[in-house]
Amino acid sequence: MNSDSKKQYVVAVVGATGAVGEEMIKTLAQRSFPVKALVPLASSRSAGSSVEFGGKDWRVSQLTENSFAGVDIALFSAGATRSLEFAPAAVRAGAVVVDNSSAFRMDPTVPLVVPEVNPHAIARHKGIIANPNCSTIQMVVALKPLHDEAGIKRIVVSTYQSVSGAGKSAIEELAKQTTALMSMQEVEPKKFQWQIAFNCIPQIDSFLENGYTKEEEKMVNETKKIMEDDSIKVCATTVRVPVFFSHGESVNLEFARPISPDRAREILARAPGVEVVDDPAHGLYPMAITAAGKDASFVGRIRADRTVEHGLNMWIVSDNIRKGAALNAVQIAEKLIV
Ligand code: 25A
Ligand code: L14
């Protein structure tokens, strides 16, 4: 894309009224992205409503194949079905698509990018750049610098994922169920398979024949693609917890070479996009409430795993709607225009 420091861009946001789309528009404003015009797109349910950006109201239009004339950059976050159907039309119209869904992530012709980890991959795009899964993004931001230091052989990760990853209706469902149960009323699950208030559900996305869920499989495949190393073994268990924003991850690592907890802390303290909060003596470690609304991937509880050779365990938390989705997509767009 043109690299002219004064150039301004026409930016479309597909799914502009959703949890991620709204955060994308907020992030474009916060980071002063050079937007000449905003094109908010959603379903017919939202067409005619408006979103606020840069002190102006912008009318939301219904997403169609003809939505992209004159658009330079299109940020997609309305689910994989819409991405598969409409991203090609955006590319044909001359836009570069940054897609937040799983639709194109494992397509070998589509770069899968976390700007702190593999920004160089952006250059080989053919119109679509994929934004990884939220749980993968926050993990690889912290693991890449450790991999460069000591070579990660195996990752075992268990996630504690907030409801906001499943969209606005999921946020509403946790709030409604919580108040209903507090007043002794019955609840009927809609968005999630089971009651989510006061519960944890060891299923995110659907099950595959191998016994893992698609969410777990995404963490395995996307980690290897972003880290550009197929030899890393990844085993994931993904769990939904009754938290509104931020995912937590318990991560067990086996390295090829020795690395101490102190050395890991030192490396992570200067890693881009990472913040170390690791002072157990004072009860300090990252939590969902630490990360919500923030940009970093927060790391704490760094300790040796004495059950394996060269093992480290840690706890990683980040806001899944920001770094896990909207912020990472806007960071990719920023790289496109420099
Ligand atoms: O592919 P799926 O299964 O349909 O997945 C979509 C779901 O995944 C969420 C998304 O969140 C939605 O729940 N999601 C968000 N990021 C994702 C990601 N990276 C992601 N899924 C995968 N990967 P959401 O509900 O917060 O945002 C949805 C946005 O997408 C727009 N949208 C939906 N269908 C569309 C469409 N845009 C164009 N064409 C379509 N056919 C959606 O716009 C929103 O911006 P909207 O106008 O439909 O939503 C306005 C309000 O309506 C609520 N709502 C959503 N679905 C329903 C609904 N209300 C009633 N019935 C529904 N079925 C939304 O909460 C919003 O407030
Ligand atoms: O692949 O928490 O981006 O339900 C979308 C749904 C991530 C998880 C993706 C959720 C997923 C998300």
Protein described:
Helices cover 29% and strands 24% of the residues. It is globular and about 60 Å long. The mean pLDDT is 97. It starts with 8 loop residues before the first strand and ends with a helix. The strands form 3 sheets. The chain has a 6-stranded parallel beta sheet with strand order 5-2-1-6-7-8, with helices on both faces. The chain folds into 2 domains: 9-131 and 325-336, 3-Layer(aba) Sandwich (Rossmann fold), CATH 3.40.50.720; 136-320, Dihydrodipicolinate Reductase, domain 2. The chain has helices at residues 19-30, 80-92, 134-150, 168-182, 214-227, 261-269, 288-291, 322-336, and strands spanning 9-14, 35-42, 50-53, 56-59, 61-62, 73-76, 96-99, 128-130, 152-161, 233-240, 247-255, 274-276, 297-304, 311-318. The relative contact order is 0.15. Helix 1 packs across helix 8 (322-336) and helix 3 crosses helix 8 (322-336). With 338 residues, the chain is of the alpha/beta class. Bound molecules: 5'-O-monophosphoryladenylyl(2'->5')adenylyl(2'->5')adenosine and trans-cyclohexane-1,4-dicarboxylic acid. The site of trans-cyclohexane-1,4-dicarboxylic acid has 9 residues, from helix 5.
Provide the fold topology.
Elements: E1 9-14, H1 19-30, E2 35-42, E3 50-53, E4 56-59, E5 61-62, E6 73-76, H2 80-92, E7 96-99, E8 128-130, H3 134-150, E9 152-161, H4 168-182, H5 214-227, E10 233-240, E11 247-255, H6 261-269, E12 274-276, H7 288-291, E13 297-304, E14 311-318, H8 322-336
Parallel strand pairs: 1-2, 1-6, 2-5, 6-7, 7-8, 9-10, 12-13
Antiparallel strand pairs: 3-4, 9-11, 11-14, 13-14
Helix pairs in contact: 1-8, 3-5, 3-8
